[in-house]
Design brief:
Distance between the termini of chain B: 44 Å
Shape of chain A: globular
Number of strands of chain B: 5
Radius of gyration of chain A: 25 Å
Low-confidence stretches of chain B: none
Oligomer: heterodimer
Strand content of chain B: 15-25%
Largest sheet of chain A: 6 strands, antiparallel
Largest interface: A-B, 12 and 19 residues
Largest sheet of chain B: 5 strands, parallel
Structural class of chain B: alpha/beta
Chain lengths: 344, 184
């Protein structure tokens, strides 16, 4: 086994936390049963790593098999690093769905044609999505397996999620994707976050949505606690209204986990008190950034507890309605404009 | 439309209390404790966030015997909302049918000016000011007991005592300047 391969394996093992090591190695399946049984998972990591290395040397594993371990770990635990969502647009007439085998071969071919020094690995996941791991290189260096990019594409949908991609290789990847899926082009959806399943749920509307109804459910079903007949809340109708509006704007149940929402303002300063800033012609540039461990949940509770005004302002509800979390707000149009998002 | 104390007829052996709180978290616990404790009298509790109360409930609402304003000293909004609600109360209530409940006065991080300001308001209106502890069950229990005592007097269920007499007795007073200096 090559030195570089050994080093790569060491780095990969180092990145995987000890608790997840056993399950990932079981799935990897490149060690024989006897070898696997001989591993002691309670050892300190560096010792374990050396043992594993010697076992792999026995089997004489290649770079491909070693990187498979990295990929398996990432598929199991995708929530490291930021994922960016893109959408393929302008489907040609024949493309309604991409077939797995065709897409795989076509993508590899196109990417290798655009840049020859890449290592591409694809894997089909259970939930009908295809994972692609790309290690980029150039004329002077071999593909760098320590900084791979991951691409997840759900075959029946036009959505692609990318993580770990630098700006240098972005156009190449986009071109390869567009060519292999036979769409017209690919655009950035301005949606990013750490949790891959959350991005997917938000874009494909897989969370529990609430639709406006003329006759909402009666009070008793929603609030069984206040069944004591002697206690009565004067503002019960208002509270119910607020809850309903919050649920309509953000959804019900477990909401997708977003971390940030960024609003870039390019509007004129409009406050009657401050004369120095309000008279100017050029727009007042500012950035408003909401950060939270679960942003949608916290916005929803702001609205339902009355801290934010209900009905929900369209600036906040567009996060779920449009499925994005980066907005640029300008003065002219009342809608939110679609200008280029942050550089990846 | 301000809340009027004597515009409705009283019922036999009943007492009604209105708990007003901006945050809407403590009044639920307090209401349950109040209703649980009292067995001899029919006690009804109405919960509100602020005054004025919604007009839709005006017919179904019984005569309110005591209005309790719950102020959390940790939040400025709580104090401001309570003071704004005071304006919507008919002046007849301030003769023994209003009470202030303050939570978090023991906390070291509390803003001293808020406590002084609420005391000044209560003193100027001749209303009692109760300090309560809202985090523990015993605190809620004690608060419920004290509120019930005042409520029974305000509803006229205690012979030889009326709300006006009681409020004059236990009303909040502002300490004089020499006391402030001694404390510092």
């Amino acid at each position: 086994m090559d030195d570089s391969v050994k080093q790569l394996l060491r780095q990969i093992i180092r990145k995987i936390p000890s608790s997840k090591l056993q399950s990932t190695l079981t799935k990897w399946d490149h060690l024989s049963k006897r070898q696997f049984r001989s591993l002691d998972f309670t050892q300190p990591k560096w010792l374990f790593c050396e043992n594993l290395l010697s076992l792999c040397e026995e089997n004489d594993l290649t770079v491909k098999q070693v990187t498979e371990l990295d990929m398996l770990y990432h598929i199991e635990h995708p929530n490291q690093g930021t994922w960016y969502a893109c959408q393929l647009v302008d489907a040609e007439e024949e493309t309604l769905s991409s077939e797995l085998v065709h897409f795989r071969e076509s993508f590899k071919k196109h990417l290798k044609f655009l840049i020859s020094h890449v290592a591409v690995k694809t894997k089909k996941n259970d939930d009908d999505s295809i994972w692609i791991r790309i290690a980029w290189g150039d004329n002077f260096t071999r593909p760098n397996h320590l900084k791979p990019s991951y691409v997840v594409h759900h075959l029946q949908t036009p959505y692609v999620f990318v993580s770990g991609l630098t700006a240098k290789y972005k156009p190449l990847l986009h071109q390869a994707l567009v060519l292999s899926t036979r769409y017209g082009s690919i655009t950035d959806v301005h949606l990013s976050g750490r949790c891959l399943s959350a991005l997917r749920d938000l874009l494909m509307r897989q969370y529990k949505q609430v639709f406006p109804t003329k006759y909402p459910r009666p009070l008793q079903e929603r609030n069984p606690l206040l069944s004591n007949p002697n206690i009565e809340n004067e503002h019960m109708k208002h509270t119910e209204n607020r809850l309903q509006m919050a649920a309509e704007a953000f959804g019900d149940g477990a909401l997708p986990k977003l971390e940030t929402a960024v609003y870039k303002l390019q509007t004129k300063y409009r406050d009657n008190g401050n004369e120095m800033l309000s008279g100017r012609e050029e727009p007042f540039r500012g950035v408003v950034r909401f950060t939270s461990s679960n942003l949608l949940e916290s916005l929803k509770s702001c609205v339902s507890s009355g801290m934010a005004s209900a009905p929900v302002t369209p600036l906040l509800s567009s996060i779920t309605q449009k499925g994005r979390n980066y907005f640029v707000i300008t003065d002219k149009a009342p809608e939110i404009s679609h200008t280029p998002g942050p550089k990846m | 439309m301000s809340l009027k104390p004597y515009s409705k007829l009283p019922e036999l052996n009943t007492a009604n209390v209105l708990l007003v709180e901006n945050e809407e978290e403590f009044h639920k616990k307090l209401s349950e404790a109040i209703v649980r404790q009292e067995n001899n009298v029919n006690v009804t509790v109405r919960l509100a966030r602020c005054l004025p109360l919604p007009v839709e409930n005006a017919e179904s609402r019984p005569r309110i015997d005591l209005v309790v304003f719950i102020v959390h000293l940790r939040s400025e909004q709580s104090l401001l909302s309570a003071e704004a609600s005071l304006k919507h109360l008919d002046s007849g209530y301030f003769l023994g049918k209003v009470c202030f409940l303050v939570t978090g006065a023991r906390s070291g991080t509390v803003c001293y000016e808020r406590l002084a300001s609420i005391r000044k308001t209560a003193a100027s209106l001749n209303c009692p000011l109760l300090m309560t502890e809202d985090k523990t069950t015993e605190g809620v229990h004690t608060a419920a007991q004290r509120v019930l005592n005042i409520l029974k007097v305000s509803a006229g269920l205690v012979p030889m005592a009326s709300g006006l007499y009681l409020s004059t007795l236990i009303r909040c007073t502002m300490p004089t300047d020499s006391d402030w200096q001694n404390q510092d």
